[in-house]
TrEMBL record:
Source species: Kribbella yunnanensis
MF GO annotations: transaminase activity
Identification of the protein by name: PLP-dependent aminotransferase family protein
PROSITE patterns in alphabetical order: HTH_GNTR
UniProt KW keywords: Aminotransferase, DNA-binding, Pyridoxal phosphate, Transcription, Transcription regulation, Transferase
Domain HTH gntR-type: residue ranges: 21-89
Transmembrane segments: none
Alphabetical list of Pfam families matching this protein: Aminotran_1_2 (PF00155), GntR (PF00392)
């Protein structure tokens, strides 16, 4: 029997339901959505009404009304002394063991049910993407279709050569459908159930998803303004003997920290002293506000993950894994089980975009700090009790909230039309949230103004009637 904890359910509910209407109905529709997806499986026991009401900052009568509506719809059954559980014949499609209610892809299923999306830290596309894509001629397509049979597990040879030369090293390249697929391949190819994996605290939520699917046991190491605490990591290498260590040295999601040169050197030296695989996710490297190395170097147990999603456009779905040839060959075999390769057309566009990579980085380096200052100015004006550490990369700000939990903030924010991620989904304590700063200024301002109203509610907890149609 699956017993869903209050913390689990409150995180799963982020981004579900509808943004308007009576509060009990918003909650019931969110729960019904989770049941439909199979994320709340048949037989799962839901939290008690009172506990869920406290976590969601609503009255117990609201939760009771939501549960009753689900019962009337045949989705749950309620018995005195046994609580509320999902009915065994409730509609579902996929085993909940294959899903996590707060996984990184949740907000992309149907989009956040809010007018302002603070959940997604995606950057707008650069104009060069459309220019390059439109430049392909019929002859270019003929060259692709007549030269290649269309199946390249490792990727388009000319693109792999272009990326390898860009790094200036001899390591091999495996092209992937974005950095998320790269992480999944690393997890499937390098880990077995029970293996210990060390990640930063906090860390990229997509990495947590990928490693969790392998049955690995996660251990965290602290992160500060200089990056990963290498001394703390070495102690864990001795006591935990991990199979894999995952870092983001060139730009950290969600904090925006860039690891210092000294810590980079000390980190890579550990590879010669301890037996573990080091995975460096450089997806944010192209968004660094100052020049930063794109890799930690080369080593037979170092894998570098790269991506064009942040620099150019997320819709390219173009990433890669750089590593020793034998390791890349193994990961390509793993990839072949479910995917025979990415689109050659998209890879040809990506190959040509590499000719504009430095210009794209320069453009991001010019615009991102300006957009950051806009957000911090709005926070200082409307949420002066919030605190943060200035990021050195990325498109979002890691904000410490002054009162309550980020899960409470996210639930209340949704009632004001703002979709917000709680810090707990990044494996961190639930007192932070991530706010993107690349949205249009007016959208950003409206979102922060609405969050200032949330701050009042977190402190004051007014009645549900005041929250129905804020």
């Amino acid at each position: 029997m699956d017993r869903i904890t209050t913390d689990q359910l409150t995180r799963m509910l982020v981004g579900t339901g509808t943004p308007t209407g009576p509060l009990y109905r918003r909650l019931s529709e969110g729960l019904a959505e989770l049941i439909d997806r199979g994320e709340l499986p048949p037989g799962a026991v839901l939290p008690p009404e009172r506990a869920l009401a406290v976590a969601l900052t609503m009255s117990r009568t609201t939760v009771v009304a939501a549960y009753q509506e689900l019962q009337a719809g045949g989705l749950v059954e309620r018995r005195r002394g046994s609580g509320t559980r999902v009915r065994t014949h409730a509609r579902h499609t996929v085993s909940s063991r294959e899903l996590a209610g707060d996984h990184a892809a949740s907000q992309f299923l149907d989009g956040p049910p809010a007018t302002i999306d603070f959940m997604t830290a995606a950057l707008p596309s650069l104009g060069i993407v459309a220019d390059v894509a439109a430049s392909l001629t019929r002859d270019d397509y003929l060259q692709l279709t007549t030269t290649h049979h269309g199946y390249h597990l490792k990727g388009l040879p000319s693109l792999r050569e272009r990326i390898a030369s860009w790094y200036g090293g001899s390591d091999d390249i495996l092209i992937t459908a974005g950095a998320q697929q790269a992480l999944e391949l690393v997890g499937r190819g390098c880990l077995q159930p029970g293996d210990r994996v060390i990640v930063e605290d906090p860390t990229y939520r997509g990495a947590l998803d990928a490693f969790a699917r392998t049955g690995s046991r996660l251990c965290t190491v602290a992160l500060d303004s200089a990056g990963l605490d290498v001394d703390a990591l070495e102690k864990l290498l001795v006591t935990e003997a991990p199979r894999l260590v995952y870092v983001q040295a060139s730009g950290h999601n969600p904090t925006g920290v860039v690891m210092t040169a000294d810590r980079r050197r000390r980190l890579t030296r550990l590879l010669d002293r301890y037996d573990f695989i080091l995975v460096d996710d450089t997806s944010l490297a192209g968004t660094a506000f100052a020049p930063t190395p794109s890799t930690l170097g080369t080593h037979e147990r170092l894998l570098t993950i790269g991506s064009l999603s942040k620099v150019f456009w997320g819709g390219l779905r173009l990433g890669w894994i750089r590593g020793a040839p034998q390791t890349v060959a193994r990961l390509a075999q793993v990839r072949g089980i479910s995917d025979l390769g990415s689109s050659l057309v998209a890879q040809e566009v990506a190959r040509r975009l590499f000719d504009h990579y430095e210009d794209a980085v320069a453009e991001r380096r010019t615009t991102l700090p300006v957009q950051l200052r806009t957000l911090t100015g709005l926070l200082q004006q409307h949420l002066p009790d919030c605190t943060w550490q200035e990021p050195a990369a990325g498109a979002s700000l890691w904000v410490r909230l002054p009162h309550g939990t980020a899960t409470q903030w996210s639930q209340l924010a949704q009632r004001y039309g703002v979709a917000l991620l709680p810090g707990a989904v990044f494996g961190s304590s639930d007192d932070h949230t991530r706010i993107p700063f690349t949205l249009p200024v007016e959208t950003l301002r409206a979102g922060i103004e609405r969050l200032s109203r949330v701050a009042t509610e977190v402190v004051g907890y007014p009645t549900d009637a005041a929250r129905v149609n804020p």
